[in-house]
Amino acid sequence: MTPTRIKLDRGRGALGPALELVHTGRAPTRAVLTTELGVTRATAGAVATELQALGLITVDPRPHAASGAQGRPSHRLDIAADGPVVLAAQVHADGYRVALVGLGGRIVATAPACMTVDADPARIIGDAVAAGAELLRTTGRRCLGAGLAVPSAVAEPEGTALNPLHVAWPAGAPVHDIFRDCLTEAGVGVPGRCGNDVNLAALAEHRHGAGQGSHHLLCVATGHRGVGGALVLDGRLHTGSAGLALEVGHLIVDPAGRACHCGARGCLDVETDPLALLETAGVTPDPARSPLDQARALLAGDHPEAAAVTEAVAQLVDRLGQGLAAMVNVLNPDRIILGGLHQSLLAAAPDRLRSVVADRSLWGRSGSVPILPCSLGHNSLVGAAELAWQPVLDDPATALSAP
Known about the structure:
The chain is an alpha/beta fold. The protein has three domains: about 5-80, Orthogonal Bundle (Arc Repressor Mutant, subunit A); about 85-200 and about 380-400, ATPase, nucleotide binding domain (Nucleotidyltransferase, domain 5), CATH 3.30.420.40; about 210-375, ATPase, nucleotide binding domain (Nucleotidyltransferase, domain 5), CATH 3.30.420.40. The chain contains 15 helices and 14 strands. The chain has helices at about 5-15, 15-25, 30-35, 40-55, 120-140, 175-185, 195-210, 270, 275-280, 290-300, 305-330, 340-350, 350-360, 380-395, 395-400; strands spanning about 55-60, 75-80, 85-90, 95-100, 105-115, 145-150, 155, 160, 190-195, 215-220, 230-235, 235, 335-340, 370-375. The strands form four sheets. Strands 5-4-3-6-9 form a five-stranded mixed sheet, with helices on both faces. The longest helix has 26 residues, at about 305-330. The chain is globular. This is ROK family protein. It comes from Streptomyces lonarensis. Belongs to the ROK (NagC/XylR) family.
């Protein structure tokens, strides 16, 4: 084997890691790419050139140096603005969203959101895929994959939604097979992958948002109803042996609390979600409006009884802090990010929440764990796209050579 051939093999083996570095913003220049990959400048240049030839990134032909920087200027790397996309869809308790998402987590196009969820998962997933197919036809973009986020634990490898408690789907709905069939019927000839919405939100935040740089990232979030959790370890989701890890919504924080859908009482799922805040503040939910929107309006001052809201916030923050402390004791994360209503509760009472977590920590050290709000808009949707992008990040050349 000639030395040239050895270099070529090494370069091709670096395509995936290199693309992920650019995708996550960790290699803005060819010089940084060289350092991060641990290869020569020539190899990094060849890798960047090949990724550009595949239509995935652009390499600025004019080297630039940062202001005040020393040494040789470097070529800037960026995502190709007109490059391929993936189709991303998210089903939640109050409808669905659909988007085309490029590398870097960039949302390229969106379809109008649907605000109702059919009891037949095939119907709403089919509608979401049809909306995505129309986006592809309208934009003319090449699609490399599709991802779907659902409000349920998704068993692996069969792809069934085991506990879609907040949508009227049957337990065990075969969402992966439904998604695949809908893509075929809509003429979108790409593989589809499904996952839990909070898992995918955590993955998106780790790669593009508030979780960047964390090695043991815990995400806890409540959207329209219920509570979910996720753990990202060294860049990969920890889903357990069958995809069912981190069902933190059923961590009991008040044994005498509200009855939960799971049969227990006082779970995070029913003690710290938007409906719990409304009920604790003495507000009757409006069935015509999103519970999350109503809860956020309450926190913004849309209630005549400010004292009742303050007391409700304190109670939910204490329950949430108790649950987070238990997770810290078990998982020992280096960062916690909160999504949905939980990030609003963090903003409303940051010191109280951090104090509860620290006080309930077994070792008294959880107060040193940063607790931050999620920073991405529509992070579950971006996470669904990450699921679809993963095969490309693993092997760009093979993924781009597929018909």
